[in-house]
Amino acid sequence: MSRPSSPTICFLVAGGAVITTLELVAAACLEKWPSARIVALDTECFNPRTPVHLSWKGPGEFIRLDPREFGIRNFARGFNWNLALNGGRLAFDRMVRKANNLFRKLRPSIVLSCTDNYYGQRAFLKAARLDGVLTVLLQEGPHRIIEPARDAGSIRHRMLSLAHKCGVVEERLPYGGYFHDKILAVSTAYAETFRQSGIDSEKIAVVGVPRFDALLSSEPGRRPPIPKLVYVFQPFVKQGRVDERIAQGVLAEMAAGISAAYDDVPFEFVVRAHPRADGETLMSFCRNLNCPYILSDPVVPLPELLRTATAAIGHYSIGLIESLILGVPIVCVPIPTSGFADPMEAKKQIWTENLGSPVGKNRFEIQETVVEALSNDVQAIPLDRLRDETGVLDGRATERTVDEILTVLRHRHDFGACREIA
Asked: N or C of the chain: less Cβ packing under 10 Å?
């Protein structure tokens, strides 16, 4: 494939924090390299579990893909099951050919993705690699599960390996293990985890979290006349991460504790649904409340809502980390580790629970900790305590990310514009 005289940077876009991150990086790439062509591909359509409709606010072109044109239909919620029902490895190979045809039209110089362990993104990454296109994996934020190499002997891994040999699913590789030219890790702790999973140290760079830059540069929001508590709701039931019965028990205790706290100290209670929200579970929680509540407008960015909060409450959401960066105290209501489908997912909850913020495990503890947090009796968590999950919080994560992308490009291509900004 011949290359254009200036780079074409292709982004594999997915929902949630991924699209926010890639929009920031795309804008920064174009600012630093004005001659670059930016192309964003909507790979969220291949998500069979909790897909959302994406709206790209970044620069350049946004191409909305149709999975049916790639021979894929969403038959099952599980990624591996869905691929198997569409034809297994034959379906994946067909996706790679279709993606390769698209890339031959776009002629990308580099492909950037935040995910490489779901078949939707992997088909495009494999197509890029087959044509010699550079690929970079950007870890978009905290709480990323990276399976170490020593887990390769687990029963689950052996079953998936057998399914791969039979042509049912694609080869299973840990996050970051899909043969990238560069992996941009959040922190030195994550860089070490990537190394433990078998990634060459020379391919790893530490950049931080681009979307956290704005949290550090913003002014505090105007606090309301009465305290405001924000619940950062997570769709872990719909995503199959937490057993529904255990989740419902925790949410019932939480609703009772918050309602009792409202009787002690009246406050404004705002329920913030995740973009992939499980409406049934969310409304079940709301029905158990015996106090007024407001459903947050999903159009309002979460950080904007948190800036006006007195405190936030939740389980192990990244929104709780954002709260702490903004100086807003949090209350942790932990999901019992026995409720998690994946023990590595449970580690996110354990980490949040051990931060040093107030923890409420039953309605009485939740009542006490909510009143405590809303009364400004909670000490701030030092940001250094978050570093393993956030990296260095200095407002320059986006800049470092773009510098690494351009460095990878300079090593491969001799673009004139590249020399201008070097």
From this structure: C
